[in-house]
Write a structure and sequence with these properties.
disordered N terminus; 535 residues; alpha/beta; six-stranded antiparallel β-sheet
């Protein structure tokens, strides 16, 4: 009986393992060299990098954790892992296990440092295009209406938001009208009951110094005139083996979806967007909802029969190259291209403030230089509904704002004048102006990245290899000139590790590195250090 049970159990185990073995024909185990650390795979795993602890199995073809995926690993010892196709990976007992159904993946030596590994990977696999998104992204703050209006986008409140930007003396910049401004998905006209004069609204916002972007997605509401037209043209993703449009589940319900692997469907969509720009004066678009998970269902049939879930995500990203004002939150490859990426929605918490740094660093190392660190204070609207201002941690909002201020981009959504008292509002305003003041330098770094591929936000290990910075997750370099050490906890003190060289802090005080210093930073201070010399 025991033998019989054992045989049955063995058959069951084999039955369960066989599909996994069939799907992942190739396995690579990368043993880290002494003192070697690894980064890569997913932007959203930035806080886990470098990978020193065990990590569950991650399948790049199935999930993107609300952000960008890249089939790349880089090591502090100059090794590189790359595949053109998605793979799965996990970390266990100090080793990286990589599984692929396409090819045997092996690391190769590209130098002796993280920076050298990145340089080779960038030039070979995602070379810089020489083009940047519109310069306004880098020199002025952005404003997004999601937190304040959610699904109630309307002309009156949008103008009121913009008026408050001016009233409270914040710099004008990119202004994003978020989800549900349009009649329904797949339609690109404003809701007439909520927008009595959309062209006049946009003209007014332009005169006030804003540039206007509208939220869009690849989905199409079923049973709409657009759905019927696109279905007839064959421009929608189909149910496998039929000519019927597939209905896909996503966070806003159930919709059909443009088949963005079909060049004619893409040309049709681009025409709708350009006609919208011509009609209303819209400057660009927030391209949302291109997540890999939307395209993983095996019953879906794409125009490009060889396309997989990640290819569909990449097809969606390529549309943005025609629009200098663009933004993406999900992605596959496309490093070095003139696309604005944004970190996935963070919650309202001190932990999330710290994630802004780790995830921005990982974005840079994966080729996404032109990235915005989510929304100031967090991008989850529930955190700011019906709030009791007396219970809101206003210091958290300010510290989040300070992190944004010396990043490539900064984006407000929750209105600081609604949730902050005069003291904290004044601090946020000052840091919005600091970002504007630093705009020329940040823009220079963007142009440098477009030529060299180098990240704008750099890990300390990247800029100062083999000097003990591999595990440093709470400070970063802005280009090669500024070391930024934000306060990301409730305390107003922190230690800052200065590399070799002469450094001048935000108060004008000079320090000789290498050394670790203790810093006192009251709520109105963001510690940062300008490199005066390398000696």
């Amino acid at each position: 009986m025991y033998l019989q049970k054992k045989l049955i159990l063995s058959f069951i185990t084999l039955f369960m393992i066989l599909p996994c073995m069939a799907q992942n024909k190739y396995e690579t185990i990368i043993s880290s060299q002494e003192g070697e650390d690894w980064w890569g795979g997913m932007v959203a795993l930035g806080s886990k990098m470098p990978y020193r602890n065990e990590l569950r199995l991650i399948d790049l073809s199935q999930e993107n954790l609300n952000n960008q995926n890249v089939p790349l690993f880089l090591s502090s010892k100059g090794r590189v892992v790359w595949s053109d196709r998605p793979f799965s990976f996990k970390t266990e007992a100090g080793n990286i296990h990589i599984y692929s159904q396409y090819e045997k993946i092996s690391p190769f030596q590209a130098g002796s440092t993280l920076k050298e590994a990145f340089a080779v990977a960038s030039s070979r696999f995602f070379p810089p295009s020489g083009v940047i998104p519109d310069p306004l992204f880098f020199s002025m703050p952005q404003y997004n209406t999601w937190i304040e209006l959610m699904y109630n986008q309307n002309q009156e409140d949008i103008l009121a938001y913009a008026d408050n930007v001016l009233k409270h003396n914040f710099p004008t910049g990119v202004f994003m009208v978020d989800d549900n401004w349009q009649k329904y998905y797949g339609n690109f006209d404003f809701k007439p009951d909520r927008f009595p004069d959309p062209k006049g609204m946009i003209e007014r916002l332009h005169k006030e110094g804003f540039r206007i972007m509208l939220w869009i997605c690849p989905f199409v509401s079923p049973d709409s005139p657009e759905f019927r037209d696109l279905q007839q043209k064959g421009f929608l993703i189909k149910k496998k083996g039929t000519n019927e449009a597939a209905i896909i589940s996503w966070w806003n319900g159930f919709s059909a979806c443009y088949d963005i692997s079909n060049p004619k469907a893409v040309a049709h969509l681009k025409k709708q967007l350009k006609d919208l720009q011509e009609k209303y004066g819209v400057d660009g678009f927030k391209f949302d909802a291109g997540d890999i998970s939307h395209f993983t269902d095996s019953t879906l049939e794409f125009y490009d029969k060889s396309a997989t879930s990640v290819d569909m995500c990449e097809y969606w990203a390529k549309i943005g190259l025609d629009f200098p004002f663009n933004e993406y939150r999900a992605g596959w490859k496309m490093g070095g291209q003139a696309l604005v990426q944004r970190l996935g929605d963070k919650d309202y918490s001190w932990n999330a403030v710290g994630l802004l740094i780790t995830d921005m660093i990982s974005a840079g190392l994966l080729g996404y230089s032109y990235t915005c660190p989510d929304m100031i204070g967090g991008g989850q609207f529930g955190s700011f509904l019906n709030i009791d201002q007396s219970k809101l941690d206003q210091d958290l909002i300010v510290r989040s704002c300070q992190v944004h201020a010396l990043m490539p981009m900064m984006q407000f959504s929750v209105a600081p004048w609604r949730i902050l008292d005069p003291e904290h509002l004044e601090i946020c305003r000052n840091y919005a102006h600091l970002h504007q003041k630093m705009g020329n330098y940040i823009l220079e770094q963007a142009h440098h990245s477009a030529k060299s591929g180098e990240p704008i936000i750099r890990h300390m290990e990247y800029e100062f290899p083999h000097q003990g910075f591999a595990s440093c997750k709470d400070q970063f370099m802005l280009g090669d000139k500024y070391l930024v050490a934000p306060i990301i906890t409730k305390e107003h003190t922190r230690s800052v590790k200065l590399p070799k060289g002469t450094w001048k802090d935000d108060t004008g005080k000079k320090f000789k590195g290498p050394k670790t210093i203790q810093v006192n930073a009251p709520i109105d201070r963001l510690p940062y250090y300008e490199r005066i010399s390398k000696k």
